[in-house]
């Protein structure tokens, strides 16, 4: 019995070790900010504050991996996003919008602009965000040119980089075109009114 328990515990530890934690709950080591606004660390999580900006992890590019983000909104109209497939370090937050994909966080948006959508490119198949004040787990699976978004255990979006997308209608919508298999990831600070908290950002490589 004791040997069996030790084997189970060892397997659990090994499984947990596959995740690389990009945020330690203490500071923003390894992260850089582009644009105005900022992220503040408090009570073991980081929180958006100020105007639009992008906090990106500068340590390495990720692809063929699962990106896990645990987040909470303070109001149902709070706006943020997880940027993926960013080819270069962004000189400003708009570079990230037009050169990566933004996985939206916004419960109040339509199906093309709500939580789990690839902003204005791929709409959600269902809605699965929890009410304000509750923690959500978003897994973003990067497999070559395929992006799958799983929100609170439910698949809400699947997108292939080669599939047709709607025509671009507004200047602030992302420029259409291919994104790389591997890229930097980041968290968007959308506006001064939104307060979005993140307590985990982790990556598990294939």
Description:
This protein has 206 residues and is mainly beta. It has one domain (21-205): Exo-inulinase, domain 1 (Jelly Rolls, Sandwich), CATH 2.60.120.560. The protein is built from two helices and 13 strands, in the order H-E-E-E-E-E-E-E-H-E-E-E-E-E-E.
User: Treating each run of at least 4 consecutive H or I residues as one helix, how many helices?
Assistant: 2
End-to-end separation: 33 Å
Relative strand content:
35-45%
Provide the gyration radius in Å.
Answer: 17 Å
Helix and strand string, N-terminal first? Answer: HEEEEEEEHEEEEEE
Q: Characterize the overall form.
A: globular
Q: CATH H-level name... which superfamily? A: Exo-inulinase, domain 1
CATH topology call: Jelly Rolls
Report the CATH architecture: Sandwich
Low-confidence stretches: 1-16
- Please bin the fraction of helical residues: 10-25%
Q: Whole-number average pLDDT?
A: 92
* CATH top level label: Mainly Beta
Largest sheet: 8 strands, antiparallel
């Amino acid at each position: 019995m004791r040997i069996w328990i030790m084997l189970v515990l060892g397997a659990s530890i090994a499984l947990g070790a596959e995740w690389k934690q990009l945020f330690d709950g203490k500071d923003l080591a390894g992260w850089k900010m582009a644009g105005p606004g900022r992220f503040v660390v408090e009570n073991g999580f980081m929180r958006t504050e100020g105007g639009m900006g992008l906090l990106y992890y500068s340590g390495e590019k990720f692809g063929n991996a699962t990106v896990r983000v645990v987040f909470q909104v303070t109001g149902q109209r709070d706006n943020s996003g997880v940027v993926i497939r960013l080819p270069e370090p962004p000189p400003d937050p708009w570079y990230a919008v037009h050169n990566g994909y933004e996985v939206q966080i916004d419960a109040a948006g339509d199906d093309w602009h709500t939580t789990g959508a690839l902003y204005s490119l791929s709409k959600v198949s269902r809605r699965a965000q929890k009410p304000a004040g509750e923690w959500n787990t978003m897994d973003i699976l990067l497999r070559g040119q395929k992006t799958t978004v799983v929100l609170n255990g439910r698949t809400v979006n699947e997108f292939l980089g080669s599939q047709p997308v709607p025509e671009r209608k507004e200047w602030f919508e992302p420029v259409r075109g291919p994104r790389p298999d591997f890229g930097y990831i980041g968290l968007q600070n959308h506006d001064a009114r939104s307060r979005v908290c993140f307590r985990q950002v982790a990556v598990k490589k294939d």
